[in-house]
Every structure is written in C-alpha cells, then in structure tokens.
Amino acid sequence: MAGLIYAVWEEQIHPAFLLAIVKNGGVGLLAWDGDRPVGFCLSFAGIETLNGVRHLKQHSHMAAMLPPYRDAGSGARLKWAQRDATLAQNVALMTWTFDPLETRNARMNLHKLGAVCNTFLPNVYGTRDDPFSAGLPTDRFHVHWWLSSARVKQHATGDVERDYAQAMFLTANDTTMDWIEPAKIDGSLLGAPLLTLAVPKDFQALKRQDMGLARTWRAFSAETFTTLFAAHYSAIDLLIYDNYCSYVFARSN
Predict the structure, then answer these.
(1) Domain 2-157 has CATH 3.40.630.30
(2) For the whole model, what pTM was predicted?
(3) Which helix (H) or strand (E) covers residue 153, if one does?
C-alpha cells in the first residue's frame, strides 16, 4: 500500500504506520490485477458529532487507483467492499474528503455511491505540492456515507430514480466555451428545493492550460459552496455534459 501511495501522491508513508491503523480498527483494502496491486483504500476509526449525537465512524483518508484502472469501475467496487468491511464492524457511517472540483471523484462519491455532502472545508490541508493540489488552496467537501440508509442501499443495487426536472440553474454559464467561466449566482433562487451549479469538467486539464482561471474557479466555488451549505443545501449528485459538469443540490426542510 505504501508503494501505491507514493505512485499516486509522491508521498512517503512508513508501512508500520499503515499497519498500526489497520491493526487498531481501521480498514485497509487492496485491488489486484493478478498478483499486482493497482488500487487501495484506507480508513481509520473515528467519532463525529452530528446534531448533538456522537457517531462511531470510519474515516476514509486515502483511496486511489493507478491511472489505467480509474475509469473501469474498480474504484467503486473497492468502496463497496470497504462498506461491507465497515458494516461488519457494526459501524454505519463512513466519511471522507475530496476536492469538489475533481469531478471524477464527485461523480463516484455522489452519483455512484450515494454519499451526500453539506460540509465545506476551506484549505483544510494547507499548502501541498502533490500533483493534484499544487498551486491552489486545498478546499474539500466532507461527505457522509450512511451505509445502511435506503439511499445507499438503492445505489448499491443500481436501482436509483433521478428526477431533477424541477431543478433551477443557480448560474447562467456560457456552456459553449471550451472552458466555462464562473457566473454570478442568482441569490433569489436560494430556497428552491433543487438547484444545479455548473463546474469545469476536467479541473486538472484546466489547471495545465489556464492556472489563472483555475484560481478564479477555486475562489468562486469556495464562496458558492459556503453559501449553499449555510442555506441548508446538500450536494446529492453530479451530472456530466459535453464540456462541463453540474452539481445537484437538494434543500432540507
């Protein structure tokens, strides 16, 4: 697992540290191609207080697949196996963080797994120089995956009904451009049951081509996500279009 961590993030982590996590309530799983490890996930046991109630949880701190395996469904299968291992511990909650502008991760976490997010963490890991984070604040979504919920059970079977016909477009972006630019949000829509928000489709490619626009998106998204979560919205899905993606936010009563 340590070798995979270095291959993905170029970070050195001592194997003894990983072993200590797994030996003390954490969950560590590997994905294999024959006798070659090609992906992994690692979580540690933790406690989170929500609405005054303390919940035992697994916090999935790291999960990744090697590049050739990232679009083959292997990552999702690994997460479902992590869910099974966590439920076997009689633990019903898993959390993790991800960059909300990394739409591949958002698609898997919300659309495929059924996780939800109503917590935004600005620059949570500080300045980093790994290939994914260099040059920008490490803003993250903190997601909740309620492993025994009806929503997650439906996602586990693939029997999910999605009806966003009533969703309102929070911004009016020019989606004909190669790279969409942020547009001012329509604050009058806050309070609608469903909202959608357009974001770039491939943030890493955008960074390589136009770091200035990437910084603009980082600042805009931080402000917008903070506004939405303060208005009692949760991110529940991410939809993919030709040259952009769109978050779906649902408002709680």
Answers:
(1) yes
(2) 0.90
(3) helix 150-157
